[in-house]
Amino acid sequence: MLSSVTIAVTPDVLVPLLTSLSIPSPDQGVWHLGPVPIRGYALSIILGIVAAIWIGEKRWIARGGRAGEVSDVAIWAVPFGVIGGRIYHVITDNHLYFGSGANPVEALYIWRGGLGVWGAIAFGAVGVLIACRRHGIKMLPMSDALAPGVLVAQAIGRWGNWFNQELFGKPTDLPWGLQIDPAYRPPGYEDFATFHPTYLYEFVWNLLAFAVIIWLDRRYRLGGGRVLALYVMGYTLGRGWIEMLRIDTVQMNNVLGLRLNVWTSIVLFVLATTYFVWAGMRGVTREENVYAEGHGPEPEPTSDADTDSSAV
User: Fold this and answer.
1) CB–CB of 51/185 below 8 Å?
2) Distance of alpha carbon 1 from the chain centroid
3) Would you list the domain boundaries of the chain?
4) Which helix (H) or strand (E) holds 151?
5) How many CB atoms lie within 10 A of CB 67?
6) Which of 13, 23, 133, 301 is the most exposed place for a label (fewest CB within 10 A)?
7) Are 176 and 191 in contact (CB under 8 A)?
8) Share of residues in the chain with pLDDT > 90 (%)
């Protein structure tokens, strides 16, 4: 006769088991080639930018633009975006740099992390606008070409948070929980070993949103800024729920019950959705000419055979 056996799963057994199934954090986020530090955070940002330029270039050429113009725009957009992202972060978390015992000079230490996506997008858009005006390019077609690639850039850039062990979510015992070293756990969470990998959630979400936008653009030949609107809708929809998982200390952590970034996501989602619907109702379609008047490729000369009716 078989006898029943009871196995007691105690916390000292369960915690190591769950930890062994979780995602490890890197042992280091910086490597040195002689005196030169190579930072995982910076590599993630750079790889994301390269991917966005490559995708944007292909989309721009397919829309009638010339090769190399996306790189010309990126020369303006990228520095503006980085500066804007840092400014937004410093303003919204100014206590980290100007509070009691803080060092204001550290506001310049961008390699330690801290780029506010809303500032990066806003200032980056200003850079795109300046570049488009300088090169005689229409702003909306260029924005529609660039927007999906920006999602990929943001997806790749999020791995910088993994290297820095930052911006993770609430504690979790799910198998894909992220291991965080004790030194990086915020106050009140010192006894928890694994947390929601919000960087991974955003990575997957952004790539899925990218695929959906590419499909919709090919299916309906969107134009007039509607691809840009889809980008804002897709990103903010994901950012909203992911932001609510995060436990990092932010200065505006409770604005009418929600974090500032959640409210920003809600407002931008509504605005982008409104524009997308409005433009669709007005019959806005993809532009046939992506250049301002007097710019763009010269028309190909017609031969005498093309103009002489007797040759037909």
Assistant:
1) no
2) 62
3) 66-137, 138-161+195-287
4) helix 139-157
5) 10
6) 301
7) no
8) 72
Amino acid at 7: I
Location of structure tokens 């390269």: 50
Per-residue pLDDT tens digits for 20-57? 579 999 998 999 999 999 999 999 999 999 999 999 99
Angle of CA points 275, 281, 286, to nearest 5°: 75
Q: What is the DSSP letter of 3?
A: -
CB 290 within 8 A of CB 64: yes
Dihedral (CA of 80, 83, 85, 87) sign: negative
Using alpha carbons, list the distances in angstroms from residue 174 to 20, 195, 209, 246, 248.
11, 9, 24, 16, 20
**């509607």: which residue's tokens?**
226
Distances (CA, A) of 308 to 30, 298, 300, 302, 311: 69, 22, 17, 10, 6
| Residues 6 or more apart whose Cβ sits within 8 Å of residue 251 | 92, 93, 94, 95
Q: Exposed/middle/buried for 309, CB within 10 Å: 0-12, 13-18, 19+?
A: exposed
Q: What distance in Å separates the CA atoms of residue 179 and residue 194, rounded to the nearest whole number?
A: 5
Residue 14 has pLDDT above 80, yes or no: no
Helix (H, G, I), strand (E, B) or coil at 29: coil
pTM for this prediction: 0.86
- Return the residue matching tokens 């920003």: 264
Summarize the chain as % helix, strand, coil (round to 5).
60, 5, 35
In 9-68, which residue ranges form alpha helices assigned H by DSSP? 11-21, 40-62
Cα–Cα distance for residue pair 95/67, rounded to 1 Å? 45
Query: Token pair of 83, please?
Result: 């500066």
Antiparallel, parallel or unpaired: β 178-179 and 194-195: antiparallel
Three-class secondary structure of residue 103 per DSSP: coil
Helices (H), ranges, the chain: 11-21, 40-62, 69-92, 95-98, 117-135, 139-157, 159-164, 198-220, 226-243, 260-281, 304-307
| Contact status, residue 190 vs residue 36, Cβ threshold 8 Å | no
